[in-house]
Amino acid sequence: MNITIEHNPSTIKLSELGVMSWPKWSCQPGKYALVFEERETCYLVKGKVKVYPKGSSEFVEFGAGDLATIPKGLSCTWDVSLFIDKHYKFDPPTSL
C-alpha cells in the first residue's frame, strides 16, 4: 500500500515543510471512496481514519498529530471515525 506515517513530527520539521501554509480539508465521520491522482502529503490536526486500499481488508490507521504520505494512484476507502481536519499538499504533476 505504501502509505507512510510519521507519528508526531517535530515542530521544526513541520515548519520546514511549511505545513501550516498548505490548504486545509475537513470531513465528518463516515466512509469515503477516494482516488489519489497525485501523491499527497497531509498532516492531521484533528481526527482519526482507517485507510483501506480497494479490494483489501487490510488498513493503515493514522490520526491527529500524524504526517502521512499517500502514493499516487491509490484507490481506497477512508473510514473516518473522528472529524478530520488536515493540511495537505499534492506533488506537482511531472511533465513528459
UniProtKB/TrEMBL annotation:
InterPro entries, sorted: RmlC-like_jellyroll, RmlC_Cupin_sf, UGlyAH_Cupin_dom
Pfam families, sorted: Cupin_3
Entry's transmembrane regions: none
Residue span(s) of domain (S)-ureidoglycine aminohydrolase cupin: 14-88
This protein's name: (S)-ureidoglycine aminohydrolase cupin domain-containing protein
